[in-house]
Structure formats: C-alpha cells, structure tokens
Amino acid sequence: MSDTSYAYAQVREAISQQIAEQKLTGNLPSERELCATYDVARSTLRQALGQLEHMGLIYRKNRSGWYVCPRKLKYDPMQHTSFLQYTTAQGFQPSTKLVEQKKQKPCKEIANALELDGRTSLTSILRVRSVDGRAVVVEELNFSNKHLPNIDKHDLSLSISVLLKNTYHHHNVLYDIAVESCCLFNPIAQYLNTYDGALGLKVTRIVRDLEGTAFEFDREYWRHDALMIENKAKLHF
Amino acid sequence: MSDTSYAYAQVREAISQQIAEQKLTGNLPSERELCATYDVARSTLRQALGQLEHMGLIYRKNRSGWYVCPRKLKYDPMQHTSFLQYTTAQGFQPSTKLVEQKKQKPCKEIANALELDGRTSLTSILRVRSVDGRAVVVEELNFSNKHLPNIDKHDLSLSISVLLKNTYHHHNVLYDIAVESCCLFNPIAQYLNTYDGALGLKVTRIVRDLEGTAFEFDREYWRHDALMIENKAKLHF
DNA sequence: GCGCATATTTGGTATGTACCAAATGGTGGC
DNA sequence: GCCACCATTTGGTACATACCAAATATGCGC
Fold first, then answer.
1. Which ranges carry the HTH gntR-type domain (chains A, B) (predicted)?
2. Of A43, A69, A145, A184, which one has the greatest count of Cβ atoms within 10 A?
C-alpha cells in the first residue's frame, strides 16, 4: 500500500481504487467537479491526476478531459513481426498514417551510427501509428541511400520489411535496440494528441546487414501508457 | 527545437542549454534563486524542473536540491551478466545492500506466474543496488521453495546466479521479461532517495527451466533516469 | 435535419502566498 | 577534534485566484 499521508496521495488512491473496481470507465468527471468531490484545490487534484497518468491508469485527450487508459500493447522490438501483425494478434485495430517523406542530410547522431559523412543523403519517413483510433507511436525511419540505392523511388507507405526482403534481399539483419524513458515535445506530442512535455518511451533501432554495416536508423516515440516491452529468450550461464 | 511559447518551456530550454554546454554541473541553484533569475513563479519553475527531470537531465536528492544527472547505465536484461560485471565494465562503482529476506506466501500475480497455489511458500529478498553511491534500482527476487528446495537456507546476499548454477544445476534457463514505465511510491521511492510518485521503469522477469517450469519471479524498480535498456540480436525475416 | 455562429465548459498556464519537514551549516560546550 | 544543539535553507505540500485557448455543447436560421 502506498503512502496516504498527503492530500494528493489520498485523492490518487481513491480514484485509483475506483478505476480498479471499474466504477470509473471512459471519461472522468471534470477537474473542477473532482475538486469539489475530494475537497482539494485544483493544483492538488492535478498532482494526483498527474501521478495516475504516470501510473498508466488515466490519460488526457486534447483539452477535452481525462479518460481511463485502455490496456497496454505488448511489443517485442527484437521480433520482426509487423505492427499490423502483433496489434491484431492482441485484438487491437491498427492504422498507420504516413506524415512526411523527405530526402535529407543526416544529423550528427545518425551520421555517427550509420558511419556516414555529412554529405551522404538519407531517405526519411515520419509516420503515426494508432490502435483503436488512439495514436500511440510516432516513428521516424531513416534509410541510407548509399546502402539502399534508389530507396526514395519506392512507395514507402507500404510495408518496409517486404521492400527490404524482396528488393534489397536483406533476409538476415542485426538489430541494435535501446529503450529509455523520455519527454514528448511538440510537434511529436501533437501527433500523439498529448501535451508538450508528456511522458514517453523512446525506442532507438539500428539495423545492420550480417557484415555489421548499418543501413537503417529508427526512432520510435511511444506514449508511455500504451506500451509494454516484452522479451523472451533462452540463455545459458 | 521544442515549443517555447510558454514561460515554463523557456525556462526549461534555458536550463537545458546550460547543462548541454556544461555551464551547469553538480547541483543547481536553489528554486527560489532560479525563480528570481528567470522571473517566474515557483510553481512555473517547478514545472520546468519537472520536465527536465522527465528528460533525465536533472534529479532531486532528498530535500536538499537539484543535481545534474550522471550518464545512464546501459543494461541488457536478456544477457546473464551480473550487476557487478556490467556496471564496472561501464566505469561505475557498484554496490548492493540486502534490505530484507523472508519466507512468505505468494501474492496473486506471482502465484499465477509460477503456477503455485496460495499455500506454497516463497523465499523473497529485497535489495538496493547503487552505482557511484547513487541508489538506482530496488530488486525484489522471489524463489519458489518447491522448485528450489532449501533455498532459504543459503546466504542470499552472495551471487544468486552462482547458487543457481552450482547448487541447483540450472545452466540453461528461459527468460521472460517485461519493461514498462511506472510510478515509484514509498517505501521503494525512499530506498531510491527519491520522492513519493517519482517516475520509474519497472522490469519484470520470470525465469524458467528448459521444460518451461517457472521457479523465479523478479521485479526491478529502476530510477527512470539511471537506465537505458539495450538489446542486440540477429534476426531473419 | 443540417450547417453555422455563439456561449459554455474544459483543461492549460501562471502568479502569489503560506506553512511544514527534512537537510544543512554553524556555533558553542566539552 | 568531536558531538549535541539550534538557526537557516531547501524542497514538498496546499491553498486561492485569474485568465487563456481549444474543445464541446447550444441554439438559431434555414
């Protein structure tokens, strides 16, 4: 049991319990109503709501109110199953929207990771992926034109993995993945219908061929409350 | 570049830049001083500090002040390298403190994961691990007495992996790991010298033998700003 | 019914104030 | 030189208030 010696903690526990007992579903009462209910100032209430948000129990949509979180999506970044595949397998309705595609020079971090000099061009796409109509992740994919000739000539709104397999014959690849918590700022926060400074999880992925040459660098910005990273493996001591 | 149309965002960016340029190291000026510097109210300043905290740039120690974060520890939960090993390899000074050891009945979640009924006993230890004198993770390890007979008779302040290998001959195991963001509450928050409701990363691990029988269930509560999860793997499409 | 302008509600931002408890720094006694 | 005590500083909690902008509900004209 958590500490309940403070007003915000009491409000937090009260709402938390209401959610656990499913007495609260869908959207919560307005902040001003909740203030009256628990007899606290709005800043105190918002502190409680903020913690429930960090716990992944509730979230805010635009400026319209607070809602109880749907269940989390389970995601194994080491598996090469597609977004479509693992979301539907878990009973979600996925959708993807390509926001932007451009050819550009790499930033310092990408140039370093892909061992490119600053002049080499990069094909980048930005897409927003949703489950059940809720935007959960913004993906930024960067492909090295040097290692994937003419990749910018293809339709990148289709499956990238199929393209890599069929056109570039990358059947076996090395994955190099990092996960860390982060802060979501505009414009990424806006794509995720959340606010400037919201909490997120950042997944960084470097994809290499079997010789170890990196040809792709991805950044995924997830809603922190939408995601559970899962890994399964066999190990020997 | 992030949105800077609001006061808190301007303060955030200003301090963020100071840190990036290493003009700020060690501890920050007091909140009241910073309020005067940037001419904002304390609550506005604290909003900015909170976001910098979420970004992993600064952290608070007890009630004594704000400090610039040290670099993150890289950790691959799928590797079976010990805490001692991977921390020293990254140039940190690790230490571990065993807080508690007890024999108890499993909670619902553990009973379910380890396929135990409510009567079977469980040997649990709680330990706090630090790098460079900073507590970074609270580990709760739970061992099934049924599958690891007399485990509570051993000294569990020593290396657990050595014990599993030499005494119980578990040379090959299956790992089942989940990572998600969470909120740290007392008393765990206190072990990590942080505050009730602080942001964290939760790593859950189920360990099985090669037949798939689970004998260990662990929960790790990490400071969100101390950790970067890393995974490397070879995949084929 | 439908579309559009308007009023209301809602969360987001911001200020100021007050008090508390823990941590820290200093001071004096031994 | 060490320790106990005290004053000060610091962040943590909590309140009340005000205004803004976006989202939503309302109602009118057609």
1. 1-71
2. A184
